[in-house]
Structures are given as C-alpha cells and as structure tokens.
Amino acid sequence: MRILGIESSCDETAASVVEDGETVLSSVVASQMSTHGKYGGVVPELASREHLRAIVPVVREALEQAGTRLQDLDAIAATVGPGLVGSLLVGLTYAKSLCFARGVPLIAVNHIEGHIHAVIMESKRAGTPVAFPAAALVVSGGHTHLFEVREGFQYRLLGKTRDDAAGEAFDKVAKLLGFGYPGGPIIDRLAPYGDQSAVRFTFAKMKGNALDFSFSGLKTAVLRWVESQDMETEIEARRALRRENPVPSSEEWLAVTPQRTLDLLASFQHAVIVELLTRARASAESVEARTLIVSGGVACNSGLRAAAESARFPYPVYFPSPGLSTDNAAMIAAAAFPKLARREFASLDIAAQANLPLA
Ligand code: KG4
Ligand code: ZN
Asked: What are the pLDDT digits (tens) for 127-145?
C-alpha cells in the first residue's frame, strides 16, 4: 500500500511516499526559511506564494525518488488543518486535483496527528512499537499540546498552551536578542556554552487545568532582563552579522554573543525544558501511559532530549529522528495509513480548517 502525503500547513512544502505506513520511500521538504528569515517570522502571504511555486516540483520529486507513478498510489493524503489557511489550501487543492484526475481516494489528515504518527511509524519500523495508552507531547512553533493516545488512535486532549507555543517562545526570544529565524535551532546550539542556573525564571502557578502551559510570562521575563542590561550594541552586532550572512555558524554567533547572553539562553532553554517535561510526566502518570511520545519541531532540541533521557521515566520516551520532528509529509502519509485501512476517505469538497482541533 503506497500513500503520497502532502504537507503545506506553515512554511515548508513537503511531499513523501510511504509504504505500508512504515517505510519512507521518499521525503522531500522545501523550506521557506530564507524567505521568512529576514522578517523574523512566517509572513502568511509570502508563505502561500512560495507553496504555489514549490508544490508541483516537490510532489514530482517525491514520486520520482520513490519510483512511484500517480496511478500506483492507493491514496493521497493532505494536511487539512490546523495551520495558515492560505498555505493549507495550496497542498490540499493540489491533492484534490490529483485525486480527481487519477481517481485516487483523498485522505484528510490533521497536522498534529501527523506529528504523533512520525513517532508511531518510526517505533514500528524499529521493532519497538508504541504501547498504548500513550501520552503525547506535541511541541512546535504552532502547538504545545498534551494528548492521551489510546489503541486505535483515539485522542483526548489533556492540556495545551494558553498563549504562546514553546517553539514560538524560542523564536520570539531569539528575535528579541537579534538572532535569526527560526530561533529554536540557534538557541539549541548556543545554550551549551551558557550556565543554565545563571538566570532564575519563575513560573506563575496555573489556575484551572494543571496540565496547561503558559510561555508568555517567560517571554516577558526575558524582555525585562534584556531591558535591564543595556544590550543595544551586541544586539546590533548580531543583526549586522545576519545582514552579511543569513545563516551564521555557531562560531560566528559566539563571536558576537557575550557570556551573560549565553547564560540567558541556557537559562531560558532550561526553563522551557523543565516546564515541558514536568507536565509531560504528570500527563503520562494521569493516564497510566505505557509510552511517552514527544514530537514537533521543538522535539529536535538536544537539551530536551538529554533531559528526557536523564529523567529516567518509568516508560520508554520516543522522539522522532530530527528529519521527522519538524514539518514533513512522511508523517502525513503515515497518519493516513490506518485511515486507508478503515476506508476513511474525504470528499473532494472538504475545506481547509485553520483551527482544526485533534481532540
Ligand atoms: O513542527 P515545526 O516544523 O512547525 C510547526 O508546526 O510549527 O516546528 C517549528 C518550530 C519553530 O518554532 C522552531 O524554532 C522550533 O520548532 N525548533 C526548535 C528546534 N528546532 C526547531 N526549537 C528548539 N530547539 C530546536 N533544536
Ligand atoms: Zn508542525
């Protein structure tokens, strides 16, 4: 069974062919980073224009790499939401037109479910499948959600961020300090040079659901710290570096980043990691999880991976390989596989949904 997955919910145009829900025959991702980098975040109008430019060649390349023709496909899966509506529309409409032209069924996939299936697919392939019930932490630029995942891929929302997503906090802090976009990978690379206990961040106690997150207070605390430090010159030096070279190396960043800022980055990243893992653990305990899944762009973070490992959770903790952590289409094709078995096909008039919930 071969499924072509198409993903275009944010700023990556991606296509992938996955066989039997576990073998990735191809996974092509066209990133728009260079387009949005200079604006310090995703510009929706530019994103949809870039998707339009990339969608046809990206799908063609995914099919070619997989040695698959359109008529050999058992289904085409596309992300239907959540995401930027103008971006979603490009991938979804292209998927619909291919389905219509070739008489192939369409499967609509929720982007968050895709992130969870990146881990389910890889664990199956590795011969150590996720055991259910599982708890899933989906943590990216757009989401910070905790779910219970039961047998048969049934989801229940346990908690989510009330304001910024964790990846968004990484990106905003990086932008504030004059680093590039996306900020997560840059902070990840520089944090090991700082002292994570140098700046103490305290989190307000959450009222209501104890499994909800909030990162806006942390972002404000970083802003206050920056305002108290007289940092204009070093921030300008980093902006100048980016104008010269849009993707500086760690060494180049280090040359324009004094120790106090490295300490701040380490302390900020540490605070985020503690928040994520504390609530992930509480969620896993609350549903008596047999596996903890961590997925989404922030799951690439090496500090988070190391902290999860040294936390010695009493159940396995699975992260996707880095290429399947950030947005990709293999996860969309993987999430579609059980739907194909259930013949859960979408109508060709299905609409993209910017705020589509998973549960
Ligand atoms: O899953 P993703 O590609 O797109 C969304 O669905 O949002 O995640 C992108 C987010 C960005 O906010 C980026 O800064 C963050 O993931 N990210 C990281 C790392 N790599 C990507 N955050 C922390 N550490 C990383 N290594
Ligand atoms: Zn994502």
From this structure: 999 999 999 999 999 999 9
* pLDDT category of residue 35 using cuts at 50, 70 and 90: confident
Q: Which residue has the tokens 């968004």?
A: 168
Using the 8-state DSSP alphabet, how is residue 213 labeled?
A: B
Q: What's the 40 CA to ligand 1 centre distance in angstroms? A: 14
Considering every ligand atom, which ligand is closest to the CA of 169?
1
* In contact, 233 and 169? CB cutoff 8 Å: no
Query: Which of these, 218, 186, 246, 231, lies nearest to 39 by C-alpha position?
Result: 246
Contacts of 95 (CB under 8 A, 6+ apart): 6, 76, 77, 78, 106
Residue 328 to residue 17: CA distance in whole angstroms: 11
* Three-state SS letters, 265-302: HHHHHHHHHHHHHHHHHHHHHHCCCCEEEEECHHHHCH
What is each CA distance from 116 to 103, 132, 140, 254, 292, in whole angstroms?
A: 29, 13, 12, 35, 11
Report pTM.
0.96
Kindly tell me if the per-residue pLDDT of 108 is higher than 80. yes
88 CA from centroid of ligand 2 (Å): 12
User: What distance in angstroms lies between residue 141's CA and the mean position of ligand 2's atoms?
Assistant: 7
Q: How far apart, in whole angstroms, are the C-alpha atoms of residue 165 and residue 139?
A: 7
Q: What phi and psi, each to the nearest 5 degrees, are found at residue 43?
A: -100, 110
Rounded to 10 degrees, the C-alpha dihedral 316/322/324/325 comes to 70
> Can you give the pLDDT at residue 263?
98
Average confidence (pLDDT) over 322-349:
97
Helices (H), the chain: 33-37, 44-66, 85-102, 111-125, 166-176, 183-190, 216-227, 232-244, 250-255, 259-286, 302-310, 322-325, 330-341
How many Å from the N-terminal Cα to the C-terminal Cα in the chain? Answer: 28
Q: How far apart are CA 166 and CA 301, in angstroms?
A: 11
Distance 284 CA to ligand 2 centre (A): 22
Coil vs helix vs strand at 226: helix
Q: Ligand 1: which residues within 6 Å by Cβ?
A: 10, 140-142, 167-168, 170-171, 182-185, 188, 296-298, 300-301, 326-327
